[in-house]
Write a structure and sequence with these properties.
This protein has a three-stranded antiparallel beta sheet with strand order 1-2-3. By secondary structure, the protein is mainly alpha-helical. The relative contact order is 0.17. The protein has one domain. Strand 2 and strand 3 form a beta hairpin. The radius of gyration is 21 Å and the shape is globular. Helix 2 packs antiparallel against helix 3 and helix 3 packs antiparallel against helix 4. The chain is built from four helices and three strands, in the order αβααββα.
Length: 155
């Protein structure tokens, strides 16, 4: 799963590079009329395109990354699915932060219904968060076995 995360990160960076090289308006319009299109879009907002000033965004991103690294280290042995999910979140977030540091925004290249723009890193963040949640839930659920002192068997 770690190799898949690294592959997805590389694929996201490559697709962002292609979209950036072609530039805004450089790709053809959606000729097939599908609800999904591939185009360059520089998203200057943060989560859900909310306008968050850099003075707030960077300290929050650093704190969130530090917390995730701490949780990843603590979860690796007891909840490996959760730890892998956190790795996906960290790598996806890092890819988006690289864009923000260089370009002042995140490159999105998957456009839904001409309204919503996302990228592979966003999918890694969402999928990783879901995996982390269910990984921790699974680690908490342990089979309850009770030992009977009368029969000497587990119930």
């Amino acid at each position: 799963m770690i190799l898949v995360a690294v592959f997805l990160l590389g694929w996201d960076r490559w697709l962002k590079g292609v979209a950036w090289a072609i530039g805004e308006g450089g790709m053809a319009e959606n000729l097939l009329g599908l609800p999904v299109d591939l185009r360059y879009f520089l998203n200057k907002g943060a989560v859900f395109s909310l306008p968050v000033p850099d003075l707030v965004l960077w300290p929050l991103a650093a704190a969130a990354a530090g917390l995730m690294m701490y949780l990843l280290a603590r979860s690796w042995r007891v909840a490996p699915v959760a730890a892998t999910g956190l790795l996906y979140v960290l790598l996806g977030g890092a890819s988006n932060l690289i864009d923000r540091a260089i370009l002042g925004g995140t490159i999105d290249y998957i456009i839904f219904f001409d309204r919503s723009a996302v990228n592979m890193a966003d999918g890694m963040i969402l999928g990783g968060a879901i995996a982390a949640y269910f990984g921790w839930r699974r680690a908490e659920i342990k089979p309850k076995t009770e030992f009977s002192t009368e029969t000497g068997e587990t119930e």
